[in-house]
Amino acid sequence: MDFSLSDEQAMLKDSVMRFVGDRHGFDKARAHATAADGFSRDDWARFAELGWLMLMIPEAQGGIGGRLEDAAILMEGFGRGLVAAPYASTAVVAAGLLARAGGADDLLADIAGGEALVALATEEARSRYDLLHVETEARVADGGFVLRGAKIVVPDGASADRFIVSARLSKTIALFLLAADAPGLEIRRYRTIDGRRACDLAFADAPARLLMHDAAETLSRAVDEASLLLAAEAVGGMQAAIELTADYLKTRQQFGRTLSKFQVLTHRVADMFVKLENARSMLLRGLAAAGGGSAEARAAAVSATMVTIIQAGEFVCGQAIQLHGGIGMADENAVGHYYKRLRAIARTYGDLDFHRQRHLRLTVGDRSAA
Amino acid sequence: MDFSLSDEQAMLKDSVMRFVGDRHGFDKARAHATAADGFSRDDWARFAELGWLMLMIPEAQGGIGGRLEDAAILMEGFGRGLVAAPYASTAVVAAGLLARAGGADDLLADIAGGEALVALATEEARSRYDLLHVETEARVADGGFVLRGAKIVVPDGASADRFIVSARLSKTIALFLLAADAPGLEIRRYRTIDGRRACDLAFADAPARLLMHDAAETLSRAVDEASLLLAAEAVGGMQAAIELTADYLKTRQQFGRTLSKFQVLTHRVADMFVKLENARSMLLRGLAAAGGGSAEARAAAVSATMVTIIQAGEFVCGQAIQLHGGIGMADENAVGHYYKRLRAIARTYGDLDFHRQRHLRLTVGDRSAA
Amino acid sequence: MDLSFSPADEAFRHEIREALRGLVPPDMARRTRQGFHPTKADLKLWNRILNDHGWAAAHWPREHGGSGWTPLQVHIFEEECAAADAPFPSYFGLRLVGPLLYTFGSEAQQCRYIPDILTGDTFWCQGFSEPSSGSDLASVRTTAVRDGDTYVVNGQKLWTTEAHYADRMFCLVRTDPDLPPQKGGLSMLMFPMTTPGITVRPVITIDGGHSVNEIFFENVRVPAEELLGAEGQGWDHAKFLLANERITNAHVPRAKRDLALLKEMAAREAAEQGGGLDLDEVDRRIAQLQIDLDGLEWSVLREVIGGSGNPAIASGLKIIASELQQRMTELAVDIVGVRGRIAYDEADLDRNDLPGNPPDYVPGLAARQLFLRATTIYAGSNEIQRGIIAKQQFGL
Amino acid sequence: MDLSFSPADEAFRHEIREALRGLVPPDMARRTRQGFHPTKADLKLWNRILNDHGWAAAHWPREHGGSGWTPLQVHIFEEECAAADAPFPSYFGLRLVGPLLYTFGSEAQQCRYIPDILTGDTFWCQGFSEPSSGSDLASVRTTAVRDGDTYVVNGQKLWTTEAHYADRMFCLVRTDPDLPPQKGGLSMLMFPMTTPGITVRPVITIDGGHSVNEIFFENVRVPAEELLGAEGQGWDHAKFLLANERITNAHVPRAKRDLALLKEMAAREAAEQGGGLDLDEVDRRIAQLQIDLDGLEWSVLREVIGGSGNPAIASGLKIIASELQQRMTELAVDIVGVRGRIAYDEADLDRNDLPGNPPDYVPGLAARQLFLRATTIYAGSNEIQRGIIAKQQFGL
């Protein structure tokens, strides 16, 4: 066991920290949020140049073959800088699924080059984060497959040019690939509370390419990994929110004193720090479980991580607003954006209730198996 | 609706506050706690002189016919002064049950005169506060009744000379009366965490007098009223603990300043006060529900009160210890005794889990009936 | 001590409930339930409807246009209004400047302003907070310098709620820079928002909504007769308002209605979402909220009926109520699952193809949850309230 | 970065587990599980057994009698000891004065004391807190005045854990009343508890137990050679100990064992109590504790392996661990229902007619819960820790 960064990881960290400009990027982040895509295409091209978009593509398929910890380093930086680019969804989750499915090397190359944005669509109106609750159906038509059904709130979906979609194929869950301009596919794009762009998808016999059948466990692993990347982003966001708050306390005057003279406020910052460091530990524990062991152990550990992240995020970023007072409520201040991003993360791929239930079922709750 | 005290209530309050000596009674309370009974027989005789022991006996049966609010005023004072006398159990609960049962005027007169101590025994090894879970059985023998079974942790049981016992009689729950020296009754006396004296009872065909059959609702009401009296005691105890703490902060020096200069500590006291006042409101609400309305509404309201009291007690008295620091952990300091009494109250007639479940069942949880 | 609602109280409740039946236009009721900031049109219309029944200022004394009801009756009335999904009438006229005027104002000022407050023809806003004085009113810097028959106002206000709805402002200003605010340095002025030199800048809050503003004053000339009471009384006026505010801000009637809606929402979501929602856990949270709301309600009843007037009690109510409002909307957003991530646009609400295809109770929740983070900050942050309690109640 | 336990680590765990099998006498294991303060006899015996295997000071460097294991191996070893229901060895020799001695002590002092610490033949106690300085060590008032070859100690200590077990004390004293404690005013002396002039008064804590004491010094003469390091270094010694303490005090191995026992207890109580226990709610609380304990364990691993040495991190561990220990015992008492009200007498534990006729896991719980209120107070209260974090991490 060794918690220190390798040389490559240290470089990666250095590189992303330089990119987000040591959290001076809020004006840029806000400008991107009001753009049509909700993020910067220029940044995305830069990511390709830096090799970040091929980091998680296996070497055999032309990538760097990085590990989840490496992507987590990038995501922590993105969290710090409120970077809204669809990194986790395209460059990790979609790239990973395409690599495992095989036969998609061209698309992987496009992802690596920054030319393709691929989003994973799993959530449905009645699924409540359960990946096995899939009402979208696939059937054979004209020698290929067509999809019928609907997906909602697809992360980074509004700017995606392709979608990976889970659908029921006979009795199992399969993954399909289709383009955003596929016939029979209707897309409704919109903003989420964190200013990012999601979409709903409606499939009316939309033709799609089968990527993988019997994909339940592959999908579950991919989404667990995506959750951990969001956890890393959350850790970066919390850290930035705490630092902004500590800085604010040192400058703001009330009742004739700087706020840093008020012990209840400084102790609140201490509690925020304690929750952040605990969340960071749980992120590492989740990454460890994703690196080996059984599917059940991984799922339980990821849910434990997410429970911690969600609880910490609500406290840390909520209190960051509280300690800023009125100005923390203003959209023109950065701190509220961390809060909103944390709340969005807390309801992507699973919420507190979902992760608690899943963790409980896989650990103490399973008394029949004990 | 009127929250002000009547003249009689104001006198009662004045009288009990004088008795507990404006919370200077800790040395006395400690001395009583180490005595065999865990309370003072002299005090008890004084209560009889003051008329407190006949307060809750109906006028028709020679008492004053007071209302539960009146007894609550006394109990709040007792809570403040850590008075361990078995007032609620004998003078309210037992007296009330005997009065409702009828035919026990002599015993009621003895209670009023301070000559009889009667305890109610309902709890069993497997009942977990459920008054309807009764395994003790009564059967007819020699023209009377005998009991077989066992009760545990009888409040104020160690000093009682008589017991009112719930037992199963054919299919219903009945109440029986028997003396502490009844044949076939074995008593094991012991201390509880608050220094009071409880007991276990084992009945081996112990002869007992039938007080009331089909007594489930009467018993439930009596125990709800007893809970509210403990709630009143808890309010008095919390108030005393807060005042002790505020006083301590004004005198104790640390790091070259009095503790009252540390904002986190004074704000903690503020939070304690907020919880106390909220608990006081819920006590009043519980008393209101006990005064009228349906049995279900009463039970739900009493459980809501107890949930609040138990939560407030743990916080208020736990933090009273915390703010005292080390000295709060010493048995020779008063503040820990309030904590222990609150924790004992929190597991008498019901605990947080029991009251939450009962409240939930009677309110939101009952979706089938909605 | 009499802890029960009397038969007369129950009869009154029944009467009000009957009288309110059908009084709230259905689309207004729907908007209220959805929880976005109320529109000016809704506030105006509901004010007028209330006034038609003599209820606009139910909580005022009869001699000033109030109902003359007992405090308990007022409480029952407000509870029934909330249960009927009526919006809470605009705060600044009816709750703040109205009572200020009939307590401290001249007869001329009362005649000039009170009638239009009752009808809802004039909307007010409150110029208190400033960029450098959020919770610290003593540090107000906006100045008013006497120049003959007028005051000349310069400075800046922030967090001015409904300034963009308002016709007039009552405004805390420094009339004497040499006196401490608590000792006569502050005064209260009233003036139209159309007075030359006033600029209103919208401040968008984290929910994406526009309810507060920043106000700039540049040589704004206000006739001296628009001074409330005497010069230098501003601190007393502010204290009077803050004490009132902490109890009204408990918003028990609205919270009771919100909790009832929450229960309905949980049942519907559970039915429609096929088992994914952990209804047991939701029920536990609702039960705890119910218990805490019961406590708050009885604390408010103790205060409005018993009237301790203890500032520590009022501060405690503010703390409990603000945290309760936050917890309630947090639960509401949790209940609706992934749709709680969607930023619904108020302007789109009449479309039938909203993102996520949500049930009707969903769209306003996420924004309302975000906005309610302000409850523990505004009207004196909860940290300020704890300081008041420690000092007032315990001398700490 | 390598986040996994290596096969070698797993093999080590297996080896330790096997070696520990049967090593803890069953009655000692039962007493440990029951959670009363450990007896001196148990501590002594277990110390000797550990020493027979060379494990008494597993966490020390090999050159001083330690195991030479990696920090991760030490962690695994302690986890396995806790899982075997071994008592945690007496703290003051093995955790505190031992490391002090091999870091700051003279060779003579090391030779004199360390062997008996390893065998458990000498028990130590720590004279730090005083009546007027609980969390504030800078205000220590106990004086030691040099008189030829000896120091004469006068004053008073409080909260001295295991002083009634101890053969010797290491004691923080003021050797220079004119220097600030941080600048050389304090020193550390070591002396036998039998030295004339020492009086030990038991302090009974709210659990009814006796684990702490008050100590009075009246002209206690201590040879100058019993000074640790140089005169005036006491502040450095105290800081060295406090930093160690905050991580050891996390007590993760014991907490893991307690949580496992809690799960068993909940299952047995539910089975025996016929439905009265809300097992769903208990499971939820256990699951949250499990998650929080996982976080604490990985934070400790990060610190013992990565070794940031950041005092803010150590303070954070102390806060989390102390609150976790409290929550765990609170749940334990809640699980056992009305029996949680009974004050079991440690002396009666071998009787088979205990009050309430409890299952064997019940008797120590209520007392332990009460005693653990001290965890958020001792070793620098959690408020002190928050102050450290604010200052060290953020300059606040």
Characterise the protein shown here.
- By secondary structure, chain A is an alpha+beta fold.
- Chain A has 3 domains: 7-116, Butyryl-Coa Dehydrogenase, subunit A, domain 1, CATH 1.10.540.10; 119-214, Butyryl-CoA Dehydrogenase, subunit A, domain 2; 218-369, Up-down Bundle (Butyryl-CoA Dehydrogenase, subunit A, domain 3).
- Helices cover 50% and strands 17% of the residues of chain A.
- In chain A, strand 6 (185-191) and strand 7 (197-212) form a beta hairpin.
- In chain A, helix 4 runs parallel beside helix 7 (216-251), helix 7 packs parallel to helix 9 and helix 7 (216-251) packs antiparallel against helix 10 (334-345).
- Chain A starts with 6 loop residues before the first helix and ends in an 8-residue tail after the last helix.
- Chain C has 12 helices and 7 strands.
- A 4-stranded antiparallel β-sheet of chain C has the order 2-3-7-6, with no helix packed on it. Chain C has a 3-stranded mixed β-sheet with strand order 1-4-5, covered by helices on one side.
- The relative contact order of chain C is 0.10.
- Chains in contact: A-B, A-C, A-D, B-C, B-D, C-D.
- At the A-C interface, strand 3, strand 6, strand 8, helix 9 and helix 10 of A face helix 11 of C.
Task: Please give a quick description of this structure.
The complex is a heterotetramer, with two copies of chain A (370 residues) and two copies of chain C (396 residues). Chain A is an alpha+beta fold. Chain A has helices at 7-19, 26-34, 41-50, 68-81, 87-101, 105-112, 216-251, 263-290, 295-324, 334-345, 352-362; strands at residues 118-121, 137-141, 144-154, 162-169, 172-179, 185-191, 197-212, 253-254, 257-258.
